[in-house]
Amino acid sequence: MMKETCAVCYGTGAVKCEVCGGSGEMPFTGLLDQECLKCKGSGRAVCRRCAGSGLTDVRPEPEVEAVLPEDGRG
Ligand SMILES: [Zn+2]
Ligand SMILES: [Zn+2]
Fold it and tell me: Across-strand partners of 5?
């Protein structure tokens, strides 16, 4: 199967942390500077589309995430 560079993380395998938005800090402010618990202050998260590999399988419909009831691969 062909592979191509992941269009979500551009092949880096990491994306911006969706909890802190890449800042590395928790979104709520006012008390103490709180490190983001999800990314542990790195501001990055593992790309879920390619599972951190940076490569995705080439599919005929890359923008549609449809769940097919049957698995008809031979
Ligand atoms: Zn990716
Ligand atoms: Zn974070």
Answer: 55
Centroid of ligand 2 to alpha carbon of 15 (angstroms): 10
Question: What Å distances lie between residue 56 and 47, 53, 61, 64, 67, CA to CA?
Answer: 11, 8, 13, 14, 17
pLDDT for 5-21, tens place per residue?
A: 999 999 999 999 988 89
SS3 25: strand
Q: Which of 53, 63, 40 is nearest to 14 (CA)?
A: 53
Q: Give distance in angstroms: CA of 62 to centre of ligand 2.
A: 27
Q: Which of 35, 15, 33 has its CA nearest to residue 24?
A: 35
pLDDT of residue 62: 54
